[in-house]
Amino acid sequence: MQEQFRKFSQKTSDLVGSPWAFIIAVVIILVWAVTGPIFNFSDTWQLIINTGTTIVTFLMVFLIQNTQNRDAKAIHLKLDELIRAVEHARNNLVDLEDLSDDELAKLQDQFRRFREQAGGEASDEAEDAIETIEHEEHERRQAA
Predict the structure, then answer these.
(1) pTM above 0.85?
(2) 92 and 134 in contact (C-beta within 8 Å)?
(3) 136 Cα distance to chain centroid
(4) What share of the chain is helix, strand, coil (3-state, %, to 5)?
(5) Max mean pLDDT range (10-19, 35-44, 66-75, 81-90)
(6) Using only C-alpha atoms, what is the Rg of the chain?
(7) Phi and psi of 96, rounded to 5°?
(8) What is the pLDDT of residue 21?
(9) CB within 8 A of 6, min separation 6: which ones?
(10) How far is Cα 48 from Cα 31, in angstroms, rounded to an integer?
(11) Taking the alpha carbons of 11, 17, 19, 23 in that order, is the dihedral positive or negative?
(12) Residue 76 confidence (pLDDT) above 60
């Protein structure tokens, strides 16, 4: 079922993200607006567009989220591969998306300080920061 939903989400996202889908949506709104005087701008006339847009929006949230989650995973995997493949890259930066928000904030703060210093000491501090993050991650995984 997961694979079928992935394929459906991808195709639907591609379709509704096209210029033709936008044109169709504009035409539907124009037809609805033009028919307003015909139906005396009744509650039913308003309810039709409100219900339609609510249903479409509700369903699209799930389809778009599925597609974005998949794209984010793919990007993370590609970046992880690049980090792993570069000789002097810090392989312990692979899978940062698995760190807690607090751990990410600490790492972000450390890298901000490195940029501010922009000196030779930054690389030593970077290594210390990475070791600290690795140690905390190791402890967190052992506790789980």
Answers:
(1) no
(2) yes
(3) 26
(4) 85, 0, 15
(5) 35-44
(6) 25
(7) -60, -25
(8) 93
(9) 66, 70
(10) 12
(11) positive
(12) yes
Angular region, 138: left φ>0, alpha ψ -120 to 50, beta rest: alpha
Contact 140, 100 (CB under 8 A): yes
Residue with tokens 């889908």: 21
Cα(27)–Cα(48) distance, rounded to whole angstroms?
15
Residue pair 90/132 in contact by the 8 Å Cβ criterion = no
Q: How far apart are CA 104 and CA 19, in angstroms?
A: 38
Tokens 């890259």 sit on residue: 89
- 2-16 vs 43-85: helix crossing angle, rounded to 10: 110
Amino acid, single-letter form, for residue 119: G
- Sign of the torsion angle spanned by Cα atoms 9, 78, 134, 139: positive
CA distances from 140 to 84, 102, 137 (A): 23, 12, 5
Quick one: tokens of 94?
Answer: 């692979």
